[in-house]
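Hello,

I think I submitted the iron/sulfur cluster job twice by accident. Can you confirm which output corresponds to this input? Input:
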Amino acid sequence: MSLIMLKDITIPEHFPIPPKVSEAELAADHQLFDRVKEALIAHQALLIAHYYTAPIVQRLAEETGGFIGDSLEMARVGKDSPLKTIVVAGVRFMGETAKILSPEKTVLMPDLHSECSLDLCCQTEDIIRVKAEYPKATVVAYANTSAEVKAHSDWIVTSSLAVELADYLKGRGEEILWLPDRHLGSYIANNAKTDVYCWPGRCVVHDSFDPSGIIKLKEQYPEAKVLVHPESPASVVALADCVGSTSQLLAFSKKDDAQTYIVATERGIFYKMQQACPEKTFIEAAIAPQGVSLDGAKCPWMSLNSLSKILECLEGKEPQKHEITVPEDIRVAALKPLNRMLAFSAALKAGSVPNDL
Ligand code: SF4
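Support: Only one job matched these inputs. Its output is below.
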């Protein structure tokens, strides 16, 4: 098994991190809760929120018959809903994924500038060049990529399925070209015991978790278990009692019998963890003092999903500023690897994956 880190990939030196929202702005925004709730119901719009959005956005989804989940679950629910208008509270690739799967629906996002640093690490020109360098490799793209990047991929996968898919491809004798998260690529190579040509991208949040800070927290809370998302560095993964996607970490915290957890993933998940286990204590894992300036384990782009922008989506004067569009040729090309992921996930759940997906 080996990890071959790809070279000459365009990785931004600095990411366009939006400014932090002040407490006063947040308080004013929260006043809109009832109004936005009425607007969602009046417009028969389905609010699909990612686990990393603010607690008030998740509560809004709960109180309007919407949905909260990870990116795979969000894509599925948007597709299966009979409603024709979907508001995706998350980051742009999630809105694009909803549109790829449901072209007949209107997909709106509170802010189309809601980036993901992994997506920003992955330029189409680089993929075209690398694919030409490794023509035999199977391109497996993480869900956190643009529609255009998906269109150049053989498979899309979320973190909840990544190791299983790598195992499956290994069984078929295929080499994996993984993009764009370096830490998840390394995790896949180690766990599926397979060779991976790996893109050097990173998530600004998970890449910032600090192993020495987590060790200090463990000294303070010796009974605590450590929950880690695999977009985190290997030194952080090594400290984990459970490594998994956001949904998997949430499920573990529900069934496990510990009382305290140190959580190395985005802070938004605490809303659902605390709701499911009100008697347990969840502590945010330490962020390294150096590197990007983050507001703790908070994704700066997820914070763009404010209530005022959700209202703007539905009742603003410039709806085009919120609507996700994907050119049809790109959509059709991206649909193929996405459908493969959904078929793989369903087959895995059913207990048997055919060899020819
Ligand atoms: S937490 Fe990281 S991976 Fe998730 S949306 Fe933000 S930047 Fe992207």
